[in-house]
Structure formats: C-alpha cells, structure tokens
Specification:
The chain has 93 residues and is mainly β. The chain contains one helix and six strands. It has one domain: Ribosomal Protein L25, Chain P, CATH 2.40.240.
C-alpha cells in the first residue's frame, strides 16, 4: 500500500535545526515503510535525522508492531529512512 497522508502527523515545531519527531499509522509492514521514496509526499516537512514513530496496525485497527525510522537521506526528490528500530509491543495480561 502506498503512503497515506491521513496517517501522518508532523512535529509541531518547524523552527531550529534539532531533529523532530513525527508519527505515522499504517497497515503497511515496516519493510515497505523503509523503502526509498515511501515518504516523498511529506518531503517538505522531513529533514535528515528526524525520527518517525511508525505504528503498524491490522486491517481491523489492532496493534501489530511499532518502531522508529530515522530520515537517513533527503535529495531534491526523494526521502529515504533507515530500517526499523523495533519496539517490543507485547501484552501479556
């Protein structure tokens, strides 16, 4: 599935040079999200070093996995993020 803008929330601050944290909710696997060009639609708000917290949910909306992707490179046309740094999302109760 391609990037869905409705699942993306950029960081509130757009000033300064410190990396920002963004959030994204999707049914796509992390392996799809980390493909070069996946986040091109939000190219203008992403900078190298920004973190994107990605929540992967099932088609029914249940939590599947979660993790961080870092914006690794950004050219005039393409954004590329790192492979996922996965978070443990177990619920043992």
């Amino acid at each position: 599935m391609p990037f869905q803008l409705s699942g993306f929330r950029p960081a509130a601050s757009t000033t300064g040079t410190a990396p920002r944290i963004h959030t994204y909710r999707t049914t796509d696997a992390h392996a799809a999200v980390d493909n070069a060009g996946y986040f091109n639609e939000v190219h203008s708000v992403l900078e190298i070093g920004d973190l994107i917290y990605v929540l992967v949910v099932t088609g029914g909306g249940a939590l599947s996995t979660a993790g961080w992707h870092v914006v690794a490179t950004k050219t005039a046309t393409t954004v590329d993020v790192t492979n996922v740094t996965a978070l443990t999302v177990t619920n043992s109760d």
